[in-house]
Design the sequence.
């Protein structure tokens, strides 16, 4: 009996580091799949409100995690609005006022175009492994696929969400679900990813559903319409001069 | 003296015309007193309420803190010296979710044991709930909340991480001051400090005594400075209401002017007789001016007769304010008790007297240019 117990303890001890390593590997592979050198995309954001839904269409250009430029194409009210992110700075250009403003501090916590996303949600560009301790909780089935369930606990201070849970598709290394928690453990936001499609040798979920767990409502759908990866983007796209009429 | 006697007799003889002029002038007199008294009463009660519920003897604001700038709540914080008398308040931005609707607000942490402000914070100490909170009746109405309701509240800690917890409404207070009610929720200071990681920190210190000591890293806000917005609102209200009662005064004065012009036109023979009996044109002019001025004196007397009991009654019993008035954004109780100062009464009387004498003198100037012979003959001039 003692031998069996000792063997079990030994197995558990040897497995634990493997699981931790596996969790890091999963996230690393997920990052590798999801982060291309450059991305050019056209997308729609369907914001479901109390009085109905509205759709905002945009085109985005990004280089790594640090540089991103988005131009809104529709509806007419939002057309021409531009957003430029350079590192930890974010500017918004409004064609109605012909002015650019830099968002900082609490302004980053505002909702993007009335959606369930905040500017801050879009600003997070640090690697998950650098800011969260990873733990593999187990495996389960989601959307008909085998997934790993990972728990991420903040290892640096000041993260908006001190705890996250991610469900990662075992075939394509794409997230299928994510839950964002408050310090107290209260669920704050839920993200559901679906319609995974191949773009070259990478896989991306083309529909992301954002839902503020504290609010009633149907949340916001982010639909990826077109995606071009690793194409050259002229440098002026990531310059403040682009924020003009 | 003869001029006064003559003027008085002439007015008595004019009968209904005198009563009409005096009545309208008395109405203007009472109305001016009423409106100004109402605004002064509002001003006084708004100040008293602000002192009782919000300002006490004055406030210290931590350097960089501005109540109108939510961005400053994070930076404008400090540890307060124990020697200060009063109560600290910590401001944080947050949101509540009544029935799944997001409602952004300011979370204010105040010691549950404080007795300086009229807020019923003792309810926080008495509550058995894990995280009790107080709201005002306006906030309760807006969010459709009542005592005992439980709902989620979200905020950020000092580093910026989200935190959320269920709160319970421990009480709904009825304050005449929207600035301690709308868009805010009151919780125990220690509890909020612990949950946000801001132990011993607060944005403002409400002082118990008017003469403050100097506190490093904080700016003293005099009571007069804190009450200045109320004064400005009342001044603006006075300005706009002045327009209406000055129009009424102008109509009354026009009637007086008209009476004077008519009387000089109709009483030319009388004017000629006065002059032929030895009065100088200046004396006749004075007589007619006095007649006009006497209308104002009668008006003030008449206004005093019916206005004094009426205004006294209103000052004692107050004027009930409609529910809608509460939504104007300034302190307004369920009733306003007008305040009539001696300066106000004197000033109003002087305005009416001076303007009445002026409009009476204006047409009477013509008498000096009249030919006494033509006047005696009753020829039109």
Sequence:
């Amino acid at each position: 009996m003692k031998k069996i117990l000792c063997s079990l303890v030994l197995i558990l001890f040897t497995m634990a580091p493997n699981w931790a390593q596996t969790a890091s590997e999963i996230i690393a592979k997920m990052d590798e799949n999801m982060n291309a050198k450059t991305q050019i995309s056209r997308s729609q954001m369907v914001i479901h409100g109390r009085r109905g839904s509205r759709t905002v269409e945009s085109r985005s250009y990004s280089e790594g995690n640090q540089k991103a430029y988005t131009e809104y194409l529709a509806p007419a009210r939002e057309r021409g609005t531009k957003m430029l992110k350079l590192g930890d700075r974010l500017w918004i250009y409004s064609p109605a006022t012909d002015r650019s403003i830099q968002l900082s501090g609490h302004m980053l916590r505002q909702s993007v175009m009335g959606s369930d996303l905040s500017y801050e949600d879009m600003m997070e560009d640090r690697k998950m492994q650098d800011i969260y301790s990873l733990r593999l909780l187990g495996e389960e089935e989601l959307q008909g696929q085998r997934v790993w369930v990972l728990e991420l606990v903040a290892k640096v201070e000041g993260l908006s969400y001190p705890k996250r849970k991610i469900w990662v598709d075992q075939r394509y290394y794409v997230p299928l679900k994510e839950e964002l928690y408050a310090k107290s453990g209260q669920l704050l936001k839920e993200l559901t990813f679906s319609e995974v499609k191949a773009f070259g040798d990478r896989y991306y979920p083309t529909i992301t559903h954002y839902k503020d767990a504290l609010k009633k409502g149907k949340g916001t759908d982010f639909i990826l319409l077109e995606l071009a990866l690793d194409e050259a983007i002229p440098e002026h796209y990531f310059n403040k001069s682009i924020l003009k009429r | 003296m003869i001029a006064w006697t003559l003027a008085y007799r002439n007015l008595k003889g004019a009968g209904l015309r005198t009563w009409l002029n005096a009545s309208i002038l008395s109405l203007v007199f009472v109305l001016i007193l009423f409106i100004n008294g109402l605004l002064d009463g509002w001003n006084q009660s708004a100040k008293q309420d602000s002192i009782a519920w919000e300002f006490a003897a004055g406030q210290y604001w931590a350097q960089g803190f501005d109540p109108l700038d939510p961005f400053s709540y994070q930076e404008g914080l400090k540890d307060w010296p124990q020697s200060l008398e009063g109560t600290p308040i910590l401001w944080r931005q947050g949101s509540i979710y009544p029935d799944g609707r997001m409602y952004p607000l300011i979370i204010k942490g105040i010691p549950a044991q404080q007795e300086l402000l009229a807020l019923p914070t003792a309810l926080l100490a008495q509550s058995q709930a894990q995280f009790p909170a107080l709201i005002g009746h306006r906030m309760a109405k807006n969010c459709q909340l009542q005592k005992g309701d439980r709902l989620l509240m979200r905020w950020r800690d000092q580093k910026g991480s989200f935190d959320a917890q269920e709160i319970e409404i421990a009480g709904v207070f009825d304050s005449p001051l929207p600035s301690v009610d709308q868009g805010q929720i009151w919780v125990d200071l220690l509890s909020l400090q612990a949950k946000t990681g801001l132990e011993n920190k607060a944005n403002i210190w409400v002082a118990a005594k008017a003469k403050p000591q100097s506190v490093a890293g904080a700016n003293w806000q005099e009571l007069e400075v804190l009450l200045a917005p109320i004064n400005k609102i009342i001044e603006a209200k006075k300005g706009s209401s002045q327009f209406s009662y000055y129009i009424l005064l102008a109509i009354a004065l026009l009637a007086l002017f008209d009476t004077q012009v008519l009387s000089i036109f109709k009483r030319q023979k009388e004017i000629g007789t006065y002059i032929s009996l030895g009065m100088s044109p200046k004396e006749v002019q004075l007589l007619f001016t006095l007649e006009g001025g006497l209308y104002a004196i009668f008006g003030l007397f008449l206004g005093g007769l019916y206005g004094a009991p009426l205004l006294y009654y209103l000052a004692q019993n107050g004027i009930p304010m409609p529910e809608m008035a509460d939504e104007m954004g300034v302190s307004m109780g369920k009733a306003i008790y007008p305040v009539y100062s001696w300066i106000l009464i004197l000033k109003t009387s002087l305005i009416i007297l001076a303007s009445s004498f002026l409009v009476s003198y204006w047409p009477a100037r013509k008498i000096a240019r009249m030919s006494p012979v033509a006047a005696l003959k009753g020829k039109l001039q």
